[in-house]
TrEMBL record:
It comes from Nonomuraea cypriaca. InterPro entries: Aldolase_TIM, Alpga-gal_N_sf, Alpha-glycosidase_related, GH, Glyco_hydro_36, Glyco_hydro_36_N. Its EC number is 3.2.1.22. The keyword NADP does not apply. The lineage of its organism: Bacteria, Bacillati, Actinomycetota, Actinomycetes, Streptosporangiales. This is alpha-galactosidase.
Amino acid sequence: MHTPIHLRAGGTSLVVAVDGGRLPRVLHWGPDLGELGADALAGLQRAALPAVGDSPVTYPQPVPVLPQLTEGWLGRPGLVGDSDGRRWAPYFREATHEVVDAAGGPVLHSGAHDPDYGLAIDVEIQVLAGSGLVRQRARITNDTATPYRVTSLELALPVPSDATEILDLTGRWALERVPQRSPFQVGERVRASRGGKPGLEHTLLLVAGERGFGFRDGLVWATHLAWSGNQVLAAELTPAGTRHLAAGELLLPGESVLGQGEVFQSRWQYGSWGAGLDELAARFHRHLRSRPRRPRSPRPVVLNTWEAVYFQHDLDTLLRLAERGAELGAERFVVDDGWFLGRRDDTSSLGDWTVDPAVWSKGLEPLADRVRELGMDFGLWFEPEMVNLDSELARRRPEWIFDAGHGPGLPSRYQHVLDLGHPGAYSYLFDRMNELVGSLGIAYIKWDHNRYLLDAGHVPDGRPGVRTQVEQAYRLMEQLKTAHPGLEIESCASGGGRIDLGVLEFADRVWPSDCNDPHERLEIQRWTGLLVPPEMQGTHIGAEESHTTHRTHPLDYRAEKALWGHLGVETNLLTADDETRAALARWIAFHKEHRGLLHSGEVVHADLADAAYRLEGVVSDDRAEALYAFSVVERPATWPPGRIRFPGLDDTRDYTVEAVYPGTAPAPGTVPPPWLHAGVTLPGRALRLVGVEAPSLDVDRSVLLRVVSTPAAS
């Protein structure tokens, strides 16, 4: 028996069985096991083997990263493919294994082949340094002259029998990332995305954990696929008691047919674990923050034109809006939809990426120049992958529009999809965007993507083009960023419809939702945060009456919920009164003062017994300071709220806790708990285990609590 391989990094251990000429089988994924010698590893493998009777098919086994029917696996298969009905049950064997100590973390390379089918597979598994994330992918090679069609390639990560509960997310437009829990029962829990992007209803992660797990307690494991196209995430419990999480690309017919020597490579499947969801999320946050291309400058406060003026563009109005924004402390001015040829509403002109001379007689240069004079950088909205049939581009090049054989298909927001698999369409987009970025000095692109790819047939033959479309979108982002170093891109797709580690290789932030209602944003941002750190989530202060829900909220609540991410303003500053603008300026100044903490610290959430309350915050890496928000989100059955306890602090330090009011002071007549008058100083252990009496607040109100370590007594 070959000694198992132990990969360790970032507080994670991955122990893999590599004996018998088989592909890797995971014996342990989770908390670091420390240094283990050969004898201990061999003993761990023996201890993990089940008792097997007369048929290994019906008994549990260590989870293979590529489950195979031919090895007795009756659950979800790792590879599905065929050659016109043959070569459909591969049997990869005679595996070889090599560990490489890479700079990003140790990597296991495993290769095997099926000599009868003429197929080869290479599996790459890595534990990432710093974050402790596990990621894996596989490559299938066809070594014969007979074409081989890959239908699906899903890799698996095991979870232990303690993981008895599943958490996934769903949603819709303006209400993304709604959590839902279910028992981990025998069978499959499958979440698929088929619209050419992950989608508003996408689960983001599939989480399995100990019963009743929360943000701070209970071991949890999750998988995520780094891909912005069709995909499937699955949790499976077999009748033999084996539990695993699988992920893979969801391929359309004929999207991957391999000729001789051709290769299909899966997308990276990521796995994270933690003692509670906060630790699980922190691994993703550390990974994203360690990207070589991550912007190093403070995230500039954004002023976006959309909810202020919609399509009603003119130079004088936007100049005044920019000047008002600069007065308040905005650092980036973004012109949203409505600037290009013929665009007066959303029924026409997508694809005609030329500045409209009827609105901008001198072009956008005067606005861009003035924005920079005011100390802001200049951003512009595009929706490159979409086209209106009522556009010069569609009339000129109808063959560039996806068509699966029934015409361009159903419109959505009057839109159809431009096929980036056509070299001419791709070149057209790059040339137009490249010219505008260069001539206007654009620092930031808000990249939208509203329509699903329901009928993405490549003209003239109708072959599916979804996979190519996503790859070409990535290529276009990469090419623009290479041509313009420092250019930043936001991933927006009707709000939060394209958020994943695939697009985040190229994008610098995501737009979690088109809803700026703070009541909804609290939850949307909280659950998006399972993957995305605060500085990469666009969080804007919207209008007093939400444009999506028509609820009204005071400025302080809107601003506090926007404080926690990449702050922006989307309200109409031209109609705001002096008092409102002064309060906005105070909130922006407060954000700038604390964004170093907000955009680098650890995100924490208290597990409160009453669902009417929320307590969450950010704690600095050195545990010297923290900022929390306590919120009331619905009317509780009992009153007052009781005590709140603070997660994430250092038990051994003393901390001073005080309320801060960047906008307006508490309303006259408000009766706070006694400690709130002058703050309180307590040990971190006491704040974690005992806490403080919560302020009594109305629904959809919050208070900011600043926590600072006090100097040790001499």
